[in-house]
């Protein structure tokens, strides 16, 4: 059994460099790799491309990297909660590639499975399809979408073991499983790191083969992006 446990986030992020492409799991602020993002801010890594469903909020998540002007390009699906993202995009400071949400998930999964590209009907006839190969299947038009290529994937799970096996909890699963194994190096941070054999094999969501490094995170804030409560 290969022990993939590292002592802390600093060890987990060894090898990250300026200009790299990173995948980051999460949906809004749910299931984001908080420790990895904080370490990237601390390391002051610059000119990076980030693949993530969205860009956090102004003062948390990927919004921290945006504030420091560390991100050169964002490949995302939804970006409506971040004013700084909007400002940088409209001013031309930030390169943005908007991708249909299902297509973004599949581009990750295709990379995970080793497929170079796939056909999807999403985006045909729109700006999303400009410059891309299209093809008809059974009378319906499809767009050829290439799989993502990334240097590091940073994901967040509920539990994991030293072999890299992961268990996600509730909606925090979101994009995290598809990003595991979709980059050259996958770094998983978990709330609870257990010994090998403690996880029920029937409940493991991602096998360790897709993970290269794993560590137990700390100080999770787990912020709520928009809290809505019913009036009494």
Features:
232 residues, globular, Glutaconate Coenzyme A-transferase, 6 helices, alpha/beta, transferase
CATH superfamily: Glutaconate Coenzyme A-transferase
Mean pLDDT: 95
**What's the CATH architecture name?**
3-Layer(aba) Sandwich
How many extended strands? 11
Q: Indicate the CATH class.
A: Alpha Beta
Q: What number of structural domains do the residues give?
A: 1
Share in β-strands: 25-35%
Helix content: 10-25%
The secondary-structure element order is HEHEHEHEHEEEEEHEE
How far is it from the N-terminal to the C-terminal residue, by CA?
55 Å
Overall description:
With 232 residues, the protein is α/β, with parallel strands linked by helices. It has one domain (9-216): Glutaconate Coenzyme A-transferase, CATH 3.40.1080. The protein contains six helices and eleven strands. The chain has helices at 9-12, 34-43, 62-67, 83-91, 101-113, 176-179; strands spanning 21-24, 48-51, 71-76, 95-98, 117-120, 134-137, 140-146, 152-161, 166-167, 185-194, 213-216. The strands form two sheets. Strands 1, 2, 3, 4, 8, 9, 10 and 11 form an eight-stranded mixed β-sheet that branches. The protein has a three-stranded antiparallel β-sheet with strand order 5-7-6. The longest helix is centred in the middle third of the chain and has 13 residues, at 101-113. Belongs to the 3-oxoacid CoA-transferase subunit A family.
């Amino acid at each position: 059994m290969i022990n993939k446990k590292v002592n802390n986030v600093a060890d987990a992020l060894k090898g990250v460099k300026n200009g790299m492409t990173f995948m980051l799991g999460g949906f809004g602020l749910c299931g984001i790799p908080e420790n990895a993002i904080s370490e990237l801010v601390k390391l002051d890594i610059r000119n990076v491309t980030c693949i993530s469903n969205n860009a956090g909020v102004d003062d948390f998540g990927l919004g921290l990297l945006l504030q420091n002007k560390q991100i050169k390009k964002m490949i995302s699906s939804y970006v409506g909660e971040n004013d700084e993202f909007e400002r940088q995009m409209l001013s031309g400071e930030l390169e943005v590639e908007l991708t249909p949400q299902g297509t973004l998930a599949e581009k990750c999964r295709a990379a995970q499975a080793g497929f170079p590209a796939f056909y999807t009907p999403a985006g045909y006839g729109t700006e999303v399809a400009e410059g891309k190969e299209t093809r008809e299947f059974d009378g319906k038009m499809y767009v050829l979408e290439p799989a993502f290529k990334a240097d590091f994937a940073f994901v967040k799970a509920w539990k994991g073991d030293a072999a890299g096996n992961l268990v996600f909890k509730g909606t925090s699963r979101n994009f995290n499983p598809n990003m595991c194994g979709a980059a050259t190096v996958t770094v998983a941070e978990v709330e609870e790191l257990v010994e090998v054999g403690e996880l029920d094999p029937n409940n493991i969501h991602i096998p360790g083969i897709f993970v290269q490094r794993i560590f137990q995170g700390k100080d999770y804030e787990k912020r709520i992006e928009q809290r809505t409560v019913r009036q009494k």
